[in-house]
């Protein structure tokens, strides 16, 4: 009995000891608690200064979906704007706790080298040499790396696996906490960089002279909205293939391709943008250029001595991309400017780059760190304003480093270039830079000048003039965060305790050796002597990377190229990844941490300073893996976690990876946010108070509903079923808004109940709807001139010509329908417009030509519509006059009407309608236009039939109007013009792709359905045209008027003629706006790109619609008003000068027929189907194209001859 009591008391004491143990309690219980309960028992996330939970900050209560990121404490807010108080030395241990965390007399803290806030310092140990890092991994690839420091005798302390909590894969759907995420309502949309696209801040800038508008201007409140994917986004191509090509849809920008294509920067090739390896200064390829520089100055020693370089104004970064093969790591930088998305191209290719500009602030790098700085036509005015920009490069360049300058002043002799060369020569001499080489490359026809920065201060001391001046001692050259540029030079260090005195070891030895100047630092970041700290950090990360990250947690490293260490110390994580040759790492040193960035550069790596309370200067979707070692727990003392996670989501590509090592409460908060973003939680791991999270960004899937968010809706956001969502958006004038909302929250690119494979709402079109669209689009004002056309050609050639044009139209439309998708005809990338198809299949010149022809055709159509509308208005006036004066003998003379006032009236109406936003998108506009066109066409046909019956037979002849009536040459010109009139009536190729984009597929592909629709619609149209043209000619014979309803072949019933002509006017009012919108949009986008800082071009003025200023206000853009008014006025004036409907219609038909209906579809089909040159099919297609070209030339000549003939008897502005 006594023994039992003793055993019982002993067991109680053991239980009490276990419960009071800080390590065993939570760990031993975790395996019997359900996962959801384990998460619920996690520590509550810390509160920010306002007393709100940092995970919940800026939730749905905030209408702008943003959170305050600035602390109320001035002392804590200071690091977010400057790093002037930072020290390069590592003896600042104010934020480190050197106490030892022990469990039962043994050290068990597992992340000692990962947590700067709690470093280990073993006072019994003699440095790091007696310590050893050991990791214990779970079975079945469920591994996590825990750094274990051994006891004094050197034997490792191994933690049994059963004491850890491992959570694999994602939580069930019912455990995911949904948040009301919103899309970012910004102009940049899929390319949004918050600190570079802050439109509100940019509008307040007083000057942009020094590129202030390209610098960082972060929002006062950190955004918590999500950035959408571009339409058709695909998983990025893997390195090294990505160096040479990327998916077009991932960076869908063509301006740079068109602007720089001749310099071999980039080309569009089907679904890809390819990079031939050229550049402005190396059109023949980067390798030759790189070798040419090496040959010019062999001491550069690419990849051995010159390891880390800066490429200023990098373009698409081909220079840096090809330097990888020389063992060189290049930091490429360029501004976000008119060179559309150049940095985004670079990062999508897998080449390191950041968006940065040399304006008024220092670049975010420490001093004396780059071995080489390169500038190839980088468009930076180095010589102006005291050389302040070149002096910034001098700050960044390592003593003894090189500046490679390849620009026109080096090798061209124009007065401007020679002036710049002289100024640069004087400036570099005054800076003590020595030009060590100047050489011309005959292959690329360019030249290079190479300068070397001095290694000591001797030259500075010998200068006769201290200009540029030496910087004040108080100006720390390593202070770079929001620090203003200084037009001065810093003295070079001479004390071995400073970096930059001695050139680093050759690569790759410099990677593993602590920089010489660390030997003078008594203590490192983690509390040990600095060199030992460095070595321990490196050994630790090598062990973690090789045993956990590479082989343990399940990352697919074949898909990883762009990596970021969001909180780097010595660069150990990046150094450990160097064995994986295909990855590069951007090391981020926090602005409120010890300044270890120079160490990172000295070991042959790179990085920059940053404050994660602000957005990073990179495009969305640019990194494959982000690594955050105890970042968030440190960061949330100054700003909430939520916007930082949103920034992580912005930077990561779909499928990208996030590894977080932090305190368990912080891990829990991040895991909840990741789940709400529908990320895949691949692993969570915790031991004591430390944890690890591995998550993978996914693409949201909304299987049964679409989440629509729009400010005009009564609630925001709303959730509507698919069949009601689009209609609701149409009611508020936001067409396809479900599609945009779905994309902006990351809709799956796979087909679903609501959406097609490109993320757009399910298409519902059929062969019948497509046929109806074509018939509606084709049958219009062109039908009015067909009777005249048949009259010129006669009963034989006239109908035959219409049949011939119908066949050519059908055949080329079938070719064009095959170009709706690029690549795979069933699953390839969709082309939504005619221009998209041309851009996807043809080269830059042909794209430009197509654009010019389209816009020229639009101008011509606007003129033709103005003429036709005014003629119809005049016809109404004259018809009523004839009816009123039916008994007068001289009724014709008394009913003459001047058409100019009616043209002016039509022009004024177009000026007004052109200012209405999205007028062309009004849902009922197309319906009204279709009704009107069928109304006047059917009236014309009906009146023709009645007239034939009245005549008692058909008029006309087999050969058309006789030569005796018009003369031999006029007969020829009229016949040619008739072909143009028929061609104009059949033209619809420009909108065929857009009609095809409405078709539902599968089971049949869009191309097959479109071909069937084309057969039906062309057949219906041809029958209708035959009836209209032939019945009109049968009714009037050789006297058939150029416009069947206004030429007054008919006089009665006058009211029916009035209805027909009013229908023409109503139709043309809307058609004018629909046709001109692409031209309006093109010019306005060009203007905003060219003059982004012009208030006249970009600003909008709110004008109340009624007196008092209350109620709805209309936004007016002055440039839009001026440009659209000018366009309508110009087309009106031209119409008044040349009011010849029939001639203009013939000319428009001629100009649009061959290039748009025949040539481009044929050429695109050849490329799409890879038709071999000189094959039978290729020859036949070229013969067809050539024959149609002859018809176009003849038609244009006949129409021009008609205009010339009319001008001889017409007096401008006399009606």
UniProtKB/TrEMBL annotation:
Major place of localization?
membrane
Which keywords does UniProt give here? Amino-acid transport, Cell membrane, Glycoprotein, Membrane, Methyltransferase, Signal, Signal-anchor, Symport, Transferase, Transmembrane, Transmembrane helix, Transport
Domain named Amino acid transporter transmembrane is located at 763-1204
Tell me the Gene Ontology biological-process terms attached to this UniProt entry: amino acid transport; methylation
Classification via InterPro entries: AA_transpt_TM, Put_SAM_MeTrfase, SAM-dependent_MTases_sf
Spans annotated as Disordered: 39-158
Q: Which residues form the signal peptide?
A: 1-22
**Protein's name in the database:** Amino acid transporter transmembrane domain-containing protein
């Amino acid at each position: 009995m006594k023994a039992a009591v003793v055993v019982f008391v002993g067991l109680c004491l053991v239980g009490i000891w276990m419960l009071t143990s800080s390590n065993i309690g939570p760990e031993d219980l975790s395996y019997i608690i359900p996962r959801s309960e384990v998460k619920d028992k996690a520590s509550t996330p810390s509160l920010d200064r306002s007393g709100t939970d940092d995970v919940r900050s800026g939730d749905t209560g905030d209408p702008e979906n943003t959170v305050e990121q600035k602390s109320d404490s001035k002392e804590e807010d200071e690091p977010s704007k400057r790093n002037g108080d930072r020290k390069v030395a590592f003896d600042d241990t104010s934020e480190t706790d050197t106490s030892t965390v022990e469990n039962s007399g043994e050290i068990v803290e597992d992340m000692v080298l990962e947590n700067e806030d709690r470093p280990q310092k073993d006072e019994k140990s003699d440095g790091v040499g007696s310590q050893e890092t050991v990791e214990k991994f779970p079975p079945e690839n469920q591994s996590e790396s825990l750094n274990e420091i051994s006891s004094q005798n050197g034997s490792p302390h191994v933690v049994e696996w059963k004491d850890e909590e491992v959570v694999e894969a994602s939580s069930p759907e019912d455990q995911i906490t949904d948040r009301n995420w919103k899309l970012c309502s910004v102009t940049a949309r899929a390319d949004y960089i918050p600190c570079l696209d802050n439109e509100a801040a940019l509008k307040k800038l007083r000057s942009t002279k020094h590129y202030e508008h390209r610098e960082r201007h972060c929002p006062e409140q950190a955004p918590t909205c999500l950035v959408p994917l571009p339409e058709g986004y695909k998983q990025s191509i893997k390195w090294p293939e990505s160096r040479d090509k990327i998916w077009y849809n991932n960076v869908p920008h063509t301006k740079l391709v068109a602007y720089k294509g001749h310099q071999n920067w980039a080309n569009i090739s089907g679904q890809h943008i390819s990079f031939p390896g050229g550049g402005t200064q190396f059109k023949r390829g980067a390798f030759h250029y790189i070798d040419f520089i090496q040959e010019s100055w062999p001491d550069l020693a690419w990849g051995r001595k010159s390891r880390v370089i800066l490429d200023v104004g990098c373009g698409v970064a081909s220079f840096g991309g090809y330097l990888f093969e020389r063992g060189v790591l290049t930091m490429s930088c360029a501004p976000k400017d008119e060179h559309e998305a150049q940095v985004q191209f670079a990062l999508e290719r897998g080449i390191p780059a950041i968006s940065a500009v040399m304006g008024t602030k220092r670049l975010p790098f420490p001093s004396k760190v780059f071995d080489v700085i390169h500038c190839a036509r980088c468009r930076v005015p180095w010589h102006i304003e005291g050389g302040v920009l070149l002096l910034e490069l001098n700050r960044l360049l390592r003593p003894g480093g090189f500046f490679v300058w390849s620009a026109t002043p080096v090798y061209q002799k124009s007065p401007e270039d020679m002036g710049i060369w002289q100024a640069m020569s004087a400036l570099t001499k005054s800076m003590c830079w020595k030009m060590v080489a100047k050489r011309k490359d005959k292959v690329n026809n360019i030249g290079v000048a190479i300068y070397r920065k001095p290694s000591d201060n001797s030259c500075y001391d010998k200068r006769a003039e201290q200009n540029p001046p030496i910087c004040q001692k108080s100006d720390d050259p390593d202070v770079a965060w929001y620090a203003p540029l200084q037009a001065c030079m810093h003295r070079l260090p001479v004390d071995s305790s400073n970096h930059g005195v001695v050139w680093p070891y050759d690569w790759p030895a410099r990677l593993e050796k602590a920089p010489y100047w660390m030997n003078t630092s008594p203590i490192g970041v983690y509390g040990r002597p600095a060199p030992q700290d460095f070595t321990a950090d490196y050994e630790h990360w090598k062990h973690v990377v090789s045993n956990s990250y590479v082989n343990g947690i399940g990352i697919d490293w074949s898909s990883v190229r762009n990596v970021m260490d969001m909180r780097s110390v010595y660069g150990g994580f990046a150094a450990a990844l160097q064995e994986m040759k295909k990855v590069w790492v951007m090391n981020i040193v926090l602005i409120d941490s010890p300044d270890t960035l120079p160490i990172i550069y000295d070991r042959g790596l790179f990085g920059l300073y940053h404050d994660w309370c602000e957005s990073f200067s990179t495009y969305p979707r640019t990194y494959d893996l982000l690594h955050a070692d105890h970042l968030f727990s440190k960061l949330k003392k100054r700003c909430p976690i939520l916007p930082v996670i949103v920034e992580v989501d912005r930077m990561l590509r779909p499928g990208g990876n996030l590894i977080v090592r932090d305190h368990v409460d912080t891990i829990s908060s991040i895991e909840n946010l990741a789940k709400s973003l529908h990320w895949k939680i691949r692993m969570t791991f915790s031991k004591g108070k430390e944890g690890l999270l591995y998550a993978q960004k996914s693409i949201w899937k909304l299987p049964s509903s679409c989440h629509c968010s729009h400010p005009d809706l009564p609630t925001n956001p709303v959730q509507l079923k698919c069949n009601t969502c689009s209609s609701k958006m149409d009611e508020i004038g936001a067409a396809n808004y479900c599609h945009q909302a779905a994309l902006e929250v990351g809709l799956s690119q796979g087909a679903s109940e609501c959406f097609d494979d490109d993320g757009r709402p399910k298409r519902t079109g059929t062969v019948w709807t497509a046929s109806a669209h074509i018939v509606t689009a084709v049958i219009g004002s062109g039908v009015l001139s067909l009777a005249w056309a048949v009259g010129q050609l006669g009963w034989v050639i006239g109908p035959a010509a219409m049949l011939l044009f119908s066949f050519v139209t059908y055949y080329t439309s079938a070719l064009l329908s095959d170009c709706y998708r690029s690549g795979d005809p069933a699953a390839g990338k969709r082309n939504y417009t005619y221009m998209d198809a041309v851009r996807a299949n043809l080269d830059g010149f042909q794209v430009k030509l197509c654009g010019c022809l389209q816009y020229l055709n639009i101008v011509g159509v606007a003129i033709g519509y103005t003429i036709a509308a005014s003629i119809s208005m005049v016809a109404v006036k004259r018809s009523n006059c004839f009816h009123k004066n039916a008994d007068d003998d001289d009724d014709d003379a008394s009913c003459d009407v001047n058409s100019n006032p009616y043209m002016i009236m039509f022009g004024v109406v177009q000026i007004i309608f052109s200012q209405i936003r999205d007028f062309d998108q009004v849902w009922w506009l197309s319906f009204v236009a279709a009704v009107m066109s069928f109304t006047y066409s059917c009236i014309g046909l009906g009146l023709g039939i009645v007239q034939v019956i009245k005549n008692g037979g058909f008029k006309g002849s087999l050969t058309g109007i006789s030569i005796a009536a018009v003369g031999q040459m006029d007969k020829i010109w009229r016949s040619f013009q008739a072909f143009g009139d028929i061609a104009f009536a059949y033209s619809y190729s420009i909108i065929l792709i857009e009609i095809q984009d409405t078709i539902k597929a599968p089971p049949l592909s869009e191309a097959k359905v479109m071909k069937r629709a084309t057969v039906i619609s062309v057949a219906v149209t041809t029958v209708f045209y035959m009836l209209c043209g032939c019945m009109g000619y049968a009714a009037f014979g050789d006297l058939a008027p150029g416009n069947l309803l206004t030429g007054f072949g008919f006089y009665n019933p006058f009211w029916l003629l009035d209805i027909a002509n009013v229908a023409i006017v109503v139709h043309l009012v809307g058609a004018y706006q629909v046709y001109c919108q692409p031209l309006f949009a093109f010019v306005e986008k060009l203007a905003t790109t060219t003059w982004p800082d012009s208030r006249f071009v970009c600003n909008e003025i709110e004008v109340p619609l009624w007196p008092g200023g209350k109620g709805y206000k209309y936004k007016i853009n002055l440039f839009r008003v001026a440009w659209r008014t000018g366009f309508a006025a110009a087309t009106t004036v031209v119409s008044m000068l040349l009011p010849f409907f029939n001639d203009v219609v013939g000319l428009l038909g001629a100009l649009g027929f061959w290039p748009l209906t025949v040539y481009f579809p044929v050429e695109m089909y050849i490329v799409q189907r890879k038709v071999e040159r000189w094959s039978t099919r290729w020859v036949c297609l070229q013969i067809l194209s050539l024959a149609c070209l002859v018809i176009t030339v003849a038609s244009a000549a006949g129409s021009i001859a008609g205009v010339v003939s009319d001008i001889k008897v017409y007096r401008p502005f006399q009606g």
